Amino acid sequence: MVEVIDGDTIAVRAHIWPGHIVETRVRLDRVDTPETRRPDCEAEREVGHRATAFTRDWLAQHPSVTLHQVRLGSFAGRVIADMQDEQSHQSLSDALLEAGLATRYGEDGLWCQNSSVSGPTPSRPR
Question: Which one, of 104, 66, 61, lies nearest residue 83 by Cα?
Fold first, then answer.
């Protein structure tokens, strides 16, 4: 891991072949975490920061991870992949869902449902 960008995007240094390392951004497969940069409401930003902290903590506790089902994403040259602990095979996407900090990709998050401040829902490319 190089840097946690937000709850569902991580910059990584991936060993793709012996002696070959690539730095890229990985968008976690199957999940969507609340936005922190352009949220629809302040509640979404708050939960987004919690999701980012969760991802950072999860990666600190699982320092050796593998990427599964890697494919090219359609946004900013990043890839989409499932990130799993190398030994336990625990999925970061599943952990975010279980913690209530993500929704399944394509489902609407209810982060702003009880918030009085909201705005238009931006499109979120994968």
Answer: 66
